[in-house]
Write a structure and sequence with these properties.
This protein is an alpha+beta fold and 766 residues long. The chain contains 25 helices and 19 strands. The longest helix has 55 residues. The structure holds adenosine-5'-diphosphate (ADP) and magnesium ion.
C-alpha cells in the first residue's frame, strides 16, 4: 500500500511555461512586469487633466469629480474586459487580518429601442463605493447584526489589479472599509490617516529646520516575508496544521537547524520551481519581489520585495501572503505563514523596513554624501546631517514613548511563541542604533567630546564654549559603517538607511503596526515642531534649536537604546532596571489598548477614534481567545483520536509479544530474567505511565475549557480578565505538559504505529 510518505517524496516538479516573444525568447521580467495592474497614466480615454487630478488626489486625498470617476470606471472596465475579466470586486482588509472580496459581475442592462439589452459595464458609483453585508466581519461589538452594512470606498492611492482563477479573471479595486457611522472597520483606513498626517507634520518640521522647498513626505516600507513549505500529503494528515496552522506537538529531530546549513543554502529543485512561479505571478501583479532564499530552519524560506510607499506595500504584502499560499498548492505544498509552525525550531516573522523620504528625492534616514549632491548645491552636507540626526532622535523618542503600544501592535497568539523565544526579538521593545550613532547622541546630549569606536574624535565644542554640531555627512558616513553590521537580536534596529521593525509576526497584516509606528512618530514630530517654533521665536538659530531638540529627545529616550544581545538573560534584568516595559504575552499587550493614558495619542492625532480602539481591543482579545480555544480543542481531539490509539495499538503488539514469549518459555525459570522480556515489559510500563498521565491531563484540560466558556455572565472586560488569567496560569502550562507527553510517546511508539507525520517527514522529506 502506498503511504503518505510515498506520495510526498515522489512528487513531480511542476514546470511552467514562461511567455515568449515572437522570436521564441523568454520574456524578460520588465516585459511582463505589472501586466495585471491598471495604470491610469497609460490608460486610453482618460484626458491628461484627469490623469493629473488623479495623481494629485492620491497624494492629497481630495475628492474626485463624479464625471471624472465615470471616465476612469469606463477606462478600467474596458482594460479589464479586454483581458478577459468577467467580474469586479472591492478588495479590502477587515480586522480578520486577511484580505476580503465580494465579486460582482460586469453584467448590466440597458433599455434600447424598446428592448432590454445586456452589456458589460462598471459604473462610477460601483467603482467609488460598495456596501457589502458586514455582519460577519469582526467588529468587536461596534455594530449589531441588524445594522450590518459596512461601506467600501475606493482607495485611489493603490492601483487596481486583476487576479486570475483557472476559469476566469476578476478586477480588484482596493478599498477602505467603514461602518455607516464612519468608524474604520479595516486595517487600511487608519494607515492612510497616519500616512497623510505624518506627511503634514514631517513637512512642517523640514520647513522649519531649513528645507522650505519640501511639500510632501512619504512613508516607505518593505516587508520581508518568511514562511514554511510542507508537502500537502503530510499537512492533510496533521489536524493541528489544518485547524491551527501550527503543530501542537512533535518530537524534535536530532538534526534540525544547529548546523545552520539551510540558511542561504542551495534551494532544492521543487522549492525553486515554486519560487520561480511565485515570483512570476508577483511580477505580473506589479509586486517587486527582489530576494528569495532558504531561511534558518529546515523547510523555511523568505521573500523580500523592493520597498515602496507604505499603503501600497501593505496592500502588496496582503497579496503576497495570498499568492504564496495559492502557488504552494499548485506545487502540492502547503505554505505555513504561522509564526511558530514547529516548536523548538525558528519561527517566522516579518521584518518591516520603514523609512521617510521627501518629494525632493531624499531618503530622510540616509546620510547624503557629496556624491548625492554633486549636481545640487541647494543643500549642504552639514544641513543634511543635522536633519538626519534630528529625525533619528525623533524616531527613537517615539519608540521610547510608545513602546507598549508598539508591542501591542504585534500581539497575537502565534507571535507569543516567537517573541522572546531566543530566536526572535524579545518582547521588550528597544532600539538598536549602533555604537557610533549612540556615541554621537550621547555627546550631543551631554555637551561633551565623544570618542567613537574607530578612534575618531568628535569635538562638540567650539572655542567659545558653545556646543556645535560639526559632523559633516562624509565624516558621519564613515562613522556609520558599523550599522551595516546588523544586530539581529533587536526588535527595532537602525540599519543604515531605514529602521527595521522585526517583532511583527509572519501572518500579520503590516498595516496595523505601520499605523501605530507612524502615529508614534507623529506624536513626537508635533512636539518637535512646537519645540523648534518656540526656540526660533526666542531667537535661537535653527542649528541651536535642532541641537537642543536632539539633546532633549536623547536624554529622554536613552534608556530604550540597546546595542547588545537582546536574547541574553542579562538584557531582561538590565531592561527591568531601566524601567522598560516587558509585556510577555498577548493578553498583557492587548490590555494596553484599554488604557486611555497609553492610547490617547492615537485619538489626539486623528489616527484612531475612541470607538475604533475599543473595537480593536475586542477583536484582538476575542481572536486570541478563539485561537486558543481552537488549539486546546484540537489538541484534545488529536490525543484521543491519534496519540492514544497509536499507543494502544503498540501496547497491544508488545503485550502479544510478551504473551507469546510466556507461552514459549512456559515453566522455564530462567525466562523470568530473560532480557527480551524485561526490556519489553519496561517499554510497556513506560507507555502505561505516560499514556495514563496524558489521559488524565487531557481530561482535565477538557473540563477546564468548559468552565472557561461558562463565565460569560460577567462584563466583557471582567470576562476577559478572568479568561486571560485562567489561560496563562493554568490552561497554557497544562497544554504544554500534554504536548511534551505526546512528544515522549512519539519517541516510544514504533514509527509504523505512529499515524501522524513527524517533524522528520514534514521538515526533511519533500
Ligand atoms: P536583510 O535581510 O539583510 O535585512 P533584505 O534584502 O532581505 O535584507 O531586505 C531588506 C528589505 O528592506 C527589502 O524589502 C528592501 O526593499 C527594504 N528597504 C531597503 N531600503 C529601504 C528603505 N529606505 N525604506 C524602507 N525599506 C527599505
Ligand atoms: Mg532585514
Amino acid at each position: 500500500m502506498k503511504s503518505y510518505r510515498d506520495n510526498a517524496t515522489s512528487r513531480l516538479i511542476r514546470k511552467i511555461h514562461f511567455p515568449k516573444n515572437e522570436n521564441g525568447r523568454t520574456l524578460k521580467i520588465s516585459e511582463y512586469y505589472a501586466e495585471n495592474v491598471f495604470d491610469f497614466k497609460k490608460a486610453l480615454g482618460i484626458p491628461e487633466s484627469v490623469k493629473k487630478e488623479m495623481q494629485e488626489i492620491s497624494l492629497t486625498g481630495k475628492l474626485l469629480l463624479k464625471e471624472h470617476a465615470e471616465m476612469i470606471a469606463h477606462a478600467v472596465s474596458e482594460w479589464a474586459l479586454n483581458k478577459g475579466a468577467t467580474h469586479f470586486c472591492h478588495w479590502f482588509q477587515p480586522l480578520t487580518g486577511n484580505s476580503a472580496e465580494k465579486h460582482d459581475s460586469f453584467l448590466n442592462f440597458i433599455y434600447k429601442n424598446g428592448e432590454i439589452l445586456p452589456l458589460d459595464k462598471l459604473t462610477a458609483s460601483q467603482l467609488l463605493c460598495g456596501g457589502p453585508d458586514a455582519s460577519s466581519f469582526p467588529s468587536g461589538g461596534a455594530r449589531s447584526t441588524f445594522e450590518a452594512r459596512g461601506y467600501t470606498v475606493w482607495d485611489m492611492s493603490s492601483p487596481m489589479f486583476i487576479t486570475e482563477g483557472i476559469n476566469g479573471k476578476v478586477l480588484c479595486i482596493p478599498t477602505a472599509f467603514a461602518a455607516p457611522n464612519g468608524a474604520a472597520l479595516d486595517i487600511k483606513t487608519p494607515l492612510l490617516r497616519s500616512i497623510s498626517k505624518i506627511s503634514d507634520e514631517a513637512t512642517r518640521f523640514l520647513n522649519l529646520i531649513g528645507f522650505p522647498e519640501v511639500k510632501h513626505v512619504t512613508v516607505n516600507s518593505g516587508a520581508e516575508q518568511e514562511y514554511f513549505l510542507v508537502d500537502k500529503a503530510y499537512y492533510n494528515l496533521r489536524p493541528d496544521l489544518v485547524m491551527c496552522g501550527r503543530t501542537l506537538f512533535g518530537s524534535l529531530t536530532a538534526k534540525n537547524q544547529q548546523l545552520e546549513d539551510h540558511y542561504f543554502g542551495n534551494v532544492n529543485d521543487r522549492v525553486l520551481a515554486f519560487m520561480q512561479e511565485l515570483d512570476y505571478e508577483l511580477y505580473r501583479l506589479g509586486i517587486p519581489s527582489k530576494t528569495r532564499h532558504n531561511e534558518v530552519a529546515p523547510g523555511q524560506f523568505e521573500m523580500a520585495p523592493f520597498y515602496s510607499e507604505a499603503n501600497l506595500s501593505s496592500d502588496q504584502n496582503q497579496l503576497v501572503m495570498v499568492i504564496i499560499k495559492k502557488i504552494a498548492e499548485r506545487h502540492d505544498f502547503k505554505a505555513l505563514l504561522h509564526e511558530k509552525p514547529f516548536s523548538k525550531i525558528n519561527g517566522s516573522g516579518k521584518h518591516v523596513n520603514w523609512s521617510l523620504s521627501d518629494d525632493q528625492g531624499n531618503n530622510l534616514l540616509e546620510l547624503n554624501t557629496d556624491a548625492n549632491y554633486s549636481n545640487s548645491n541647494s543643500i549642504s552636507e552639514d544641513k543634511s546631517s543635522k536633519r538626519f540626526l534630528a529625525l533619528i532622535a525623533i524616531i527613537v523618542e517615539a519608540v521610547n514613548r510608545h513602546a507598549e503600544v508598539l508591542r501591542m501592535s504585534v500581539a497575537s497568539a502565534g507571535n507569543d511563541h516567537r517573541l522572546g523565544a531566543n530566536e526572535a526579538p524579545p518582547s521588550i521593545i528597544s532600539v538598536f542604533l549602533g555604537d557610533t550613532l549612540s556615541d554621537i547622541f550621547k555627546s550631543i546630549a551631554n555637551g561633551t567630546t565623544s570618542h567613537s569606536k574607530n578612534g575618531n574624535v568628535n569635538n562638540n565644542h567650539n572655542g567659545n564654549g558653545n556646543r556645535i554640531l560639526n559632523l559633516g555627512a562624509k565624516q558621519l558616513t564613515q562613522l556609520l559603517i558599523d550599522n551595516t553590521d546588523r544586530n539581529r537580536t533587536s526588535p527595532f534596529a537602525f540599519t543604515g538607511n531605514r529602521f527595521e521593525f522585526r517583532a511583527v509576526g509572519s501572518s500579520a497584516p503590516i498595516g496595523f503596526p505601520l499605523s501605530i509606528l507612524n502615529a508614534a512618530v507623529i506624536d513626537v514630530l508635533v512636539d518637535s515642531n512646537c519645540f523648534i517654533e518656540n526656540h526660533l521665536t526666542k531667537g535661537f538659530s535653527v542649528d541651536d534649536a535642532i541641537e537642543a531638540l536632539i539633546s532633549r529627545w536623547f536624554k529622554n529616550s536613552e534608556k530604550v537604546v540597546f546595542n547588545g544581545d537582546g536574547y541574553s538573560d542579562e538584557w531582561k534584568l538590565e531592561a527591568a532596571r531601566r524601567g522598560l516595559p516587558n509585556l510577555i504575552n498577548s493578553t498583557e499587550a492587548i490590555e494596553v489598548l484599554s488604557n486611555e493614558c497609553k492610547t490617547n495619542f492615537l485619538i489626539k492625532h486623528g489616527i484612531y477614534r475612541a470607538d475604533e480602539l475599543n473595537t480593536r481591543y475586542n477583536v484582538l482579545m476575542e481572536r486570541y481567545h478563539m485561537q486558543l480555544k481552537i488549539e486546546f480543542a484540537t489538541l484534545i481531539s488529536m490525543v484521543n483520536q491519534h496519540v492514544l490509539p497509536s499507543v494502544i495499538n503498540y501496547k497491544l503488539k508488545l503485550s502479544k509479544f510478551i504473551t507469546s514469549l510466556d507461552k514459549i518459555y512456559d515453566g522455564d525459570k530462567s525466562y523470568q530474567t530473560d532480557c527480551d522480556n524485561l526490556y519489553v515489559k519496561s517499554m510497556l510500563q513506560k507507555l502505561n505511565n505516560k499514556s495514563q498521565s496524558l489521559f488524565s491531563k487531557t481530561n482535565k484540560l477538557n473540563n477546564l475549557i468548559k468552565e472557561l466558556s461558562l463565565s460569560n455572565n460577567h462584563s466583557a472586560h471582567t470576562n476577559n480578565a478572568i479568561n486571560n488569567k485562567e489561560i496563562t496560569s493554568t490552561l497554557l502550562p497544562l497544554s504544554q505538559e500534554i504536548s511534551l507527553l505526546c512528544n515522549d510517546l512519539e519517541e516510544l511508539v514504533a514509527a509504523e504505529h505512529w499515524y501522524l507525520p513527524k517533524y522528520y517527514d514534514m521538515l526533511f522529506l519533500s
